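Researcher: For the record, we're logging two predictions in this thread. I'll number them. Prediction 1 follows.
Model: Prediction 1, sequence and structure:
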Amino acid sequence: MQAPSAPIPTWPVSSSRRQFLGYGAAGMLAAVLPGCDADGGPPHAAYSQTIEWGSQEIARALAGDPDNVAAVSIALLKNDTVVWQQAFGHASVQDNLAATIQTRFNIGSVSKVLAALAAMILRDRGLLDLDAPVAHYLPGFTMLSPEYAQITTRHLLSHSSGLPGTSMRNAFTFEPIPGYAVNAEAALADQHLKHLPGMLAVYCNDGFTMIERVVAALAKQDYASFIQANVLDPLGMTDSGFLTKRPAGGSFALPYSGGRQYPQEFVSPLATGGLTSTPGDMMKLARLFLDRGTYQSRSIVSADGIAQMGADQTTGLIINPSPQWVWGLGWDSVRHPGLAAAGVQAWQKNGGTAFFSSDFYVLPDQRLALMVTGNTGDAQRADTYRAGALAEGVLLRALLEEGSIHTLPPLVAHTAPPRATPPDLADAVGVYANYNQPMRVTANQDGSFSLSSWNGSAWQPMNASYSYRSDDWWWSNEAPISYRFEVVSGTDANGQPYRNRYLMLRGPLFGAGYNETTLPMGQQLLPLAPLSAAWQARMGKTWTVTNESPATVPSTLNGTPYATLSSLPELPGYILVRNSSYDDGLPEYQLLAPLADDRAGMTVKIPANAGRDLYELHFTTVGGNETLTIGSWVYEASVG
């Protein structure tokens, strides 16, 4: 799942965090290499129009964004037959190596579907109870919040555990680095939960890293070996696996960004995003779902396990202001809004790494499936590779061509409704925080409001002003996006009252524009008591990482990661933190609240995406020098 796009930075967006980061100028269309079907034959006649449309869209992306999109690979399955499988472009631009249907891509968070399958296989064997505490299986697992003991496997698989987010240390690298999952679990021992387990669902990569630990503990073997023996081998997925060491053979798509090719990318969080695969292999996995746990008459997982993965996991959530997004177990959505607009149920999982983005769909009723993967494009270009839009467009046209639907759903209208008398904005103005960019709501004299975001030194206007309209949303005249304010209040499971004011965004945020999604983009923060002298003394300082490998993607492309501490004049009592290791190339800022003079913690509880990847700070003094810890990173104060 991805947040609405921000301007693309100088190095690729880490798509794994948003859901869990060329061709020469001449002859670009001619350089698009034809692929072939799985059996080497011509395209399937029943879907010829769909295939023609999809091929043209991919060619347009390769030609329109040659500095970033070197290769795209796609496969479409109907029943037990791959009706389209084709690779376009170059696996290696530098070596003029064509991409083929055997070329493997890093598919990022699509890997989470296999993590959920692993849990279901262990459940079938009587080794795992989805609703038993994870601490029962991992006696060494602990956190500072005592409620960590309530986290279950179901919470981990449905993004509702309350874990802070993503341990990014040594996550995306140019060489294999072992020990990621062990280090991530160890770092959690010095962190609090950001919300009570089961209270809300917000995208959380570390939940699947903990699944990796659970699988290893129960199966008595490492996670990669378990998946290989229990999923990949039985399904004949011979072009899939985890890169825990440098590959000795095979064809791999290499990172390509900004007109430059990079070495092989390695993804350390295996369960959360580390699988390499081909669309053809993923169609074998899709058949497992369509056949309710069997593959070629061999049972891999129970039908109930498949059903559990595809069941709505949002029904028990306390805070859920985005009911269009229906989390499954391992799936981003088990009622994908874009396909739901056509009256079709779809299980969907988005995935990305530092350099690649993918989308995987299974339509259980129509027995249709699709996988598309390729180099992450520049979202600011009109013609580029957008996995979600491409996948949705191909699937809808396939449904139309086979007669499952009679027409494409209408595109979302962008016309603002008539103005209406606005409500009082007095309580809504102020600063709204999220995981990457504080926003400020300012009331205007005409009853409208303006939005701005913090760019590191000033508030930068985000768009024109927004006026209240007859549909109870606030619109500008130019944008297809509308906003409103929503207050969610109640009492949590510990008997503590809560009252969260969210800035809600509505618009065609994902896919091809056939549906609107409503998401909370920020939570209002109120001023706190002034910072203590200990915190004031740290303002303006920079802290440099001491334990990040120089082979990581951010270290290689942007230099040694660092953190800076400052404050916002408009919001006293908070610490504004930039941690460059979490940046997607553009500065990202979180607002933390002091928990003590040596610790600052998370401040927001935002479902879906904007509350992901939070962290807390902890200072210790060794030999008279302060050391800063963020997750599993350790920092020292920079001289000067």
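Researcher: Logged. Prediction 2.
Model: Prediction 2, sequence and structure:
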Amino acid sequence: MERSFIYTSGADQGKNIIVQCNLCLPRVNLLSTSKTSTSNLKKHLDRTHLGCDARPDAKRGRKKEEHNGEESRHCQLKKLKAEIISKCMTQAKTDDLIFNFIVEDCQSFYMLEQPGFRKLIAGLTEGLKSMDRVTLFTKVDQGFSRMREELMAKLGNVQYVCTTADVWTANNRSFFGMTCHWIDLDSLERKSAALGFARLQGRITFDNIAGRIHDIHVAYNIESKVQTTVTDNGSPFVSVFKEFAVDSQESDDDIGLYENVGAVLEGEPEQDMLLFLPNVQRCASHTLELIVTEDFWQAVSQGPMCQLHYSSMAKVYAIWSKCHHLQVGMNAADEIGKMALVVPAVIRWNVEYCAVQKVVSFSELELTELCARLEVPRMQPEEMAFLKEYVTVFHPLAFALELFQAEQKCYLGLVIPTVLSLKNKLNEQKDAANYFRDAINAIVLAIDVRFQELFSSTEARIATATTPQFRLWWMGASEREEMCTLLATEASQMDPCSVTEDNTSHSVSTIKSEDDFFSYGPVKPAVQIQQRGVMEEIRKYVEGTGKSVECLQDFPRVKQLFLKYNTTLPSTAPVQRLFSQKGNLVTSQRNFLTDDYFERIQLLRYNSNVCTLVTE
């Protein structure tokens, strides 16, 4: 083996030279002088490292010792890792992680008995075992009971709640879902929870749906706290509330009664229960969608642009169909447009609008190439102009739908300002529109007709006025004084125990000086003093400029009105998310779960954000 040396030399005299042999570990420091030549340095290195080549056995022995040392260190590290895992991962913690995995992804309970899954758990936990199905069923029962108790405790401290209800039918199976929503008193953040996800057997009748709503409200002890129940605009739910809603002007004989059919069939004595159904609030997003799908199409079908609309949308649907059913179509769209082409997954207009928006975003050359590769008819210039104007005109409506389908920052007070702004945006585009001028007039008229009940609703107007983002700016100057009086009247009728106020000098007489003691004339009633304090608070709130809900902390009476009227959601989007959380789960492939345990799994999944699944 040839020996070589690595050394560095300095330019100045007296600087050390560091020399290292490739066969020896020690370094040799030499003092360089101006008279030292390179040959003398090499001779000195040869004498210093004489015999380096003559020690190959020692080198191999050293390598063998190093290899053995590495194996021993590897074994020590492996034992140390096992000790750390054994201390961190206990059997109880492993079972909790498996429980979370099964619940959050709605996995089959049979997975616990699969050999591969058992080997995976044993390998990751260094010998710990996976629980069996019996243990999992027990943990599901315990987790559901704990979740329900915790949720009832949270709802017990809430004064106002709102529920959403809907029925979903898929694969010859029907499910009834209900969610609950409230606003936290301290942080003013919206909280949501699922209350029911039950399978509906047999025919879906009015009394069946009404009984489900009533039973869930009673089970969670919120029947007196529910302000409204939000449903879609379908005829079944609207008819249910018309049939069973309690009207204060009706006599007791007109109130609907709920008869427990199960008790009758089991031979138990008949017991009629008073059926309580709260006020119903129709879904605002569904109303807007009906305006587009029904009123807009009726206006288009009767106008001169019917054929243009039909041909344009037919070609767009052809592109959607090819991209949806053929992977090559999606790949072509991604390759040409460098973006994913949105394909509508459900029949909702806002998804359809996004898909048209994506198609219009292609350039003329890219769209022509895409149509050629997908073998669909190419777009004509007039059709492209029609679709571009379609996207421009209906952009405010799509934005309004997105606002209504939000959950955390969406209140009932958002609906009236949104609808009024939508009408203004549509009217602004009327003059520049070439194809949709008549359609805009029809849509504006449909908005006035379909939202007429909401515009005249006192609850909706108070909800809008108590929202700091809008206050009374959306109203005319002549109506603001009347609204201030209405707010003061509603605030004065609030429960005094619910209004937490630091300054109580308006209702309690305090004497701090002589000026406070002496008084002349008739004594002012305490009610007048309280009303004056309420009106002063309303005036200060109306004159404020803050748009965040946190500013309501300075106005306790307005805050209570906000909690009462803005707890209501404007749409049924949360209950629809319950049916399709992380993908559509209401299908025939339910992992062989019974209806009872399927409901429990779904409620545990949805409520994991507000309740703990497992106890550490």
